[in-house]
Amino acid sequence: MGTIVLYPAPSMGHFISMMELGKFIIKHHPSYSIIVLTLTNSFNTGSITSYAHHISATNPAITFHHLPNIPLDLKTYASTDAIIFDLTKRSINNVAHALRSISPTILIIDLYCTSAMAPAANLNIPVYYFFTAAACCLVLTLYFPTLDQNYPGNFKDMNRLIYSPGMPPIPSSDLPVQTLERNTPVHSGFLHLARHMPKSAGIIINTFDSLESKPIKAIRDGLCVPDHPTPPLYCVGPLLSDGGNDSHECLKWLDSQPKKSVVYLCFGSEGLFLSDQLKEIAKGLEMSVLEITRYVAYGSFD
Predict the structure, then answer these.
(1) Half-sphere exposure of residue 94: CA atoms within 13 angstroms, side-chain side
(2) Does any domain span residue 240?
(3) Closest listed residue to residue 14, CA positions, set 85, 117, 120
(4) Which residues carry out catalysis?
């Protein structure tokens, strides 16, 4: 028996993924208990709290330890990423206190929660990362210190192709938004986590080998971290939420549609758009449907 502490970022997409990992661990190792460290934030507290209550009610082996609130003036931050990086950094003493009182067997952290590695090291607690995105994104994360060194300047202004191990070339402006501009808090935060991730005991990722064989091989072969041993990579995907008992009318509508007749667009849990942007998205979808219909009818695109 033992206790595993999970420390997710206070963002719904990351939080839900971490809870699915917790349920996965309990399913395969029922002798363990899970304690989740939760951060209070001002931009989606209600939704996270509601979801945490649902998890507690349906999974008794998973409990929550709520870290003290740290007030932040959201107007002073340029992005949600900047808020989360600063919130986790300011919470380091609260995390240290929680770890001392819980004494877990291991600590599993979100990439935004890299600051927890220091107190965990002081307490001799092994730290594993849970990477909630794809292996191709993990390649870019692990390789980012090398890219940052090899390509001086701002990626958003380079207008060139960027090469990473196991990946096709990517336009510099299509790199993760946190990396595009130097001398910003999110750039510093991303570089910090990218440098510390190889120092962890292992990386857990929500994918599987046959889905992303090339980037996974590049990571395991040590090509993404040329100056440091790469920790073990554990592919545990696909981890999927069961969706609960949600019976929203949109789901009923989807169930009534013919197979392969619906295009699903996901912009993440924090995707927000202006009215004009939504109209452009709708226009693009409509034009795509017209082109596909024309191809089916005449056998060629304009």
Answers:
(1) 17
(2) no
(3) 85
(4) 14, 110
pLDDT in tens, 24-42: 999 999 999 999 999 976 6
**Length of the chain, in residues:** 302
The alpha carbon dihedral of 119, 226, 162, 134 has a sign of: negative
Do 134 and 184 form a contact (C-beta atoms < 8 A)?
A: no
pLDDT tens track for 160-201: 999 999 999 999 999 999 999 999 999 999 999 999 999 999
Residue 54 is inside which H or E element, if any?
helix 45-58
Q: Is it the case that residue 286 has pLDDT exceeding 70?
A: yes
Q: Is residue 241, in this structure, part of any structural domain at all?
A: no
Quickly list H helices, 78-184: 80-90, 92-102, 117-122, 135-150
Sequence-distant (≥ 6) Cβ neighbours of residue 96 within 8 angstroms: 119, 122, 123
- Residue 63's SS3 state is strand
Q: Which domain holds residue 266?
A: 249-298
What pLDDT band is residue 46 in, cutting at 50, 70 and 90?
Answer: low
pLDDT of residue 264: 79
Note whether 294 and 198 are same-domain residues. no
Give Cβ neighbours of residue 105 (< 8 Å, ≥ 6 apart).
Answer: 2, 3, 4, 32, 125
Tell me how far apart the alpha carbons of residues 159 and 171 are, in angstroms, rounded to a whole number.
7
In terms of domains, do 45 and 112 share one?
Answer: yes
Looking at residue 230, the DSSP 8-state letter turns out to be P
Same domain, 256 and 122: no
Q: What is the largest CA-CA distance in the chain?
A: 69
State CA 167 to chain mean position distance.
Answer: 19
In the chain, how many domains are there? 2
Contacts of 285 (CB under 8 A, 6+ apart): 263, 265
CATH of the domain at 220: 3.40.50.2000
Answer yes or no: do 230 and 254 share one domain.
Answer: no
